[in-house]
Amino acid sequence: LVSREMKSEDSLIDIDGVKIGAGNFTVIAGPCAVESREQLLTTAAAVQSGGGTILRGGAFKPRTSPYSFQGLEQKGLEILAEAKAKTGLKVITEVIDSYSLDMALDYVDILQIGARNMQNFQLLRQAGKAGKPVMLKRGLSATIEEWLMAAEYIMSEGNYAVILCERGIRTYETATRNTLDISAVPLIKRLSHLPVVVDPSHATGDWQLVTPLAKASLAAGADGIMVEVHPNPMQAMCDGPQSLSLKKYQCMMQGLKPLAEVL
Ligand code: PEP
Ligand code: MN
């Protein structure tokens, strides 16, 4: 089902007019985690004024340490829904298990399955039955074949609205958090009709590298990007070093616009 051979034209996911795939370039932006009402509403207003159309924000955080902030859960989802109502932005959040998936369905437009759960086959099947678009992030060390087969799990349950997200993979390089596999973008486009979005924030772990790689993603043919944005990155509860300030986000968007016209 994921294969280009099965369907030659690009898949288009249309969420009440917000389009992903088939020649659109969609910007998803927002904080790593929903931390407070004020934090998210401030970010949402900036995301929208810069030209983003989808707001991200984690309510359930799969953290490396069990002692790190785990997310606001239901309260976080309520804040996301409020931001959506106030701005008209679509919202996406990560689900990490059956419990969070069920809960998120009432609040968000797109379900995100994170790198750590890319091969959580039960969760993939459940997302396939959820009736909402799913963004599937590439696993930390997943091959393209494994990643596409994970997407196949979702589609095999009848949900064809799948977006793939390249977020960097583990390599021997330690200077960046992960290594962005930019070649995955045109390669996936050849193998599959599904939209591909790049997350330069998790790929690098370094906000200074986000804008150059966002440009590279656009040039490589990605259908969009997902970037982390925070009103005060130094105070962020997670992933501050890779988060763009509101101002830096606006600069990135300004830098992408002329490229989008040229390409
Ligand atoms: C995220 O996007 O919030 C996230 C945790 O990313 P990843 O699953 O790619 O590590
Ligand atoms: Mn993050």
Structure description:
Keywords: Transferase. Residues 17-257 form the DAHP synthetase I/KDSA domain. GO terms for molecular function: aldehyde-lyase activity; transferase activity. This is 3-deoxy-7-phosphoheptulonate synthase. With 263 residues, the chain is α/β, with parallel strands linked by helices. It has helices at 37-50, 74-87, 98-105, 121-128, 144-156, 184-191, 200-204, 207-220, 246-262, and strands at 13-15, 18-20, 26-30, 54-56, 90-94, 110-113, 134-137, 162-166, 196-198, 224-228. The model has no long low-confidence stretch (mean pLDDT 97). It has a single domain (13-257), classed as Aldolase class I (TIM Barrel, Alpha-Beta Barrel), CATH 3.20.20.70. The radius of gyration is 17 Å and the shape is globular. It starts with 12 loop residues before the first strand and ends with a helix. Phosphoenolpyruvate binds next to loops.
CATH architectural grouping: Alpha-Beta Barrel
* Count of domain modules: 1
In one word, what is the shape? globular
Spatial ordering of strands, largest sheet: 3-4-5-6-7-8-9-10
Domain DAHP synthetase I/KDSA: 17-257
Keywords: Transferase
Protein name: 3-deoxy-7-phosphoheptulonate synthase
GO molecular function: aldehyde-lyase activity; transferase activity
Features:
263 residues, alpha/beta, TIM Barrel, eight-stranded parallel beta barrel, two-stranded antiparallel sheet, 9 helices, 10 strands, binds phosphoenolpyruvate, binds manganese (II) ion
In short:
One of its GO terms (molecular function) is transferase activity. With 263 residues, the protein is α/β, with parallel strands linked by helices.
